Amino acid sequence: MTIDNFDFKGKKAIVRVDFNVPLDENGNITDDTRIRGALPTLKKILNDGGSLIIMSHMGKPKGKVNPKMSLSQIKDAVAKALGTDVAFAPDCAAAGDMAAALKPGQALLLENLRFYPEEEGKPTIDKADPNYDAAKKEMKERQKDFAKTLASYADVYVNDAFGTAHRRHASTAVIADYFDADHKMLGYLMEKEVKAVDNILKDIKRPFTAIMGGSKVSTKIGIIENLMDKVDNLILCGGMTYTFAKAQGGNVGLSICETDKLDLALDIMKKAKEKGVNLVLGTDCVAADAYSNDANTQICSVMDIPEGWEGLDAGPETRKRFADAIRGSKTILWNGPAGVFEFDNFTAGSRAIADAVVEATKDGAFSLVGGGDSVACVNKFGLADEVSYVSTGGGALLEAIEGRVLPGVAAIKGE
Ligand code: AMP
Asked: What is the C-alpha separation between 88 and 249, in angstroms, rounded?
């Protein structure tokens, strides 16, 4: 079932959203992107004449009630965004009466799901404990009961929380077992995310260029390996540049470098060659004499960085080579900055990539930017609206690109 094809009139819908919004010390929302992201789904249900039960987690309360992570703090903001009153259920596992009392067009927000350990379904005892296996089994049963309780509030289940789609939690996956295929569906945000990943992994228009940056090769290896079979150009940039330079016998000074991953770097280079992938690595860099925005800088080869200096950004020749590879691409994936973009003096590499991605997008490419820092990076440059899609999912997006099945999607689509 798809959300567009379902008429919610007279139905109660329980919707898993990701309202894990950042709060300041007074409990005020500092960034409401996630609330705005869920609005199309929530409004569709209300406008159809359905009633809405909204559920989410916030933070990591580890299965215990923690007022600092209470969703009551965001109730008014949700009501304002929806343009209607929102009731609040202070115990998400005892909200049956409140849910039953909902009339068409009314909304109820449940308290933080993760106040219950059953949501995540992890045993509360240590792995080393001899009773761990039994506790794990017991917790799985409790998780099913918890999911069943949540399911009992509604006629339909909608999952619109892409940020947690890579977790098999009670509200993201297990709950789907209590609805038939005609009464569970992805929300609009989830549909868009899944479609964007499909564009990158399935409906690829060539040339396909993937740009992987960030600090370490070790955290990106799963994705790099999966992409190696799919891309035409693979740009590896950011901190991992120096692991590759060192692996090839370079002197990288104080640059970030994973000395235990040198063989891995050489293996990636070998595989790229075998598979005919155009691997584009940095050749020059902006080296700094301190990890600071105000450090002295010099442009040097990544193979020859002076003692005491560290590469913090891509050099001019590298920026040009990156832009050349990106220009003309028809599918682009960008994850991870090309330098320490948080420092204004080391944004040039990431900026060159962003500009080239925007240019290629104007020329008809599908560009997906996602996974943590690259989103902050395009936001910093004010270019988020000029790429095809900016993903809201960090870990979920990266796992999807690694080719893993997301439990939250599989629970609904059965894949
Ligand atoms: P990741 O979370 O692995 O995507 O890494 C993102 C982080 O990598 C950002 O905070 C960047 O500042 C950092 N980064 C990018 N290039 C470098 C570099 N050359 N040296 C140190 N950190 C870097």
From this structure: 61
Pairing of strands 12-16, 51-55: parallel
| Residue nearest (by alpha carbon) to ligand 1 atom 5 | 214
- Tens-digit pLDDT profile for residues 63-117: 999 999 999 999 999 999 999 999 999 999 999 999 999 999 999 999 999 999 9
Question: Whole-angstrom Cα distance, residue 267 to residue 248?
Answer: 11
Q: Cα 70 to the chain's mean position, in Å?
A: 23
Atom of ligand 1 nearest to the CA of 285: 19
Q: Poorest-confidence range of 9-23, 181-195, 394-408?
A: 394-408
pLDDT, one tens digit per residue, over 142-163 is: 999 999 999 999 999 999 999 9
Which residues are identified as catalytic? 34, 216, 372, 395
pTM listed for this prediction: 0.90
Which H/E stretch holds residue 169? none
* Closest-lying ligand 1 atom to the alpha carbon of residue 241: 19
284-288: strand order across its sheet = 297-301, 284-288, 310-314
Q: What is the mean pLDDT of the chain?
A: 96
- Burial (CB < 10 A; 0-12, 13-18, 19+), residue 66, is middle
- Give the Å distances, CA to CA, from 187 to 18, 42, 106, 389: 12, 9, 18, 17
pLDDT for the residue numbered 157: 98
Q: Whose CA is nearest to atom 18 of ligand 1?
A: 239
The total number of residues written for the chain in this structure:
415
- For residue 210, what are the β-bridge partners? 234, 333
Q: Is the dihedral of CA 182, 187, 188, 194 positive or negative?
A: negative
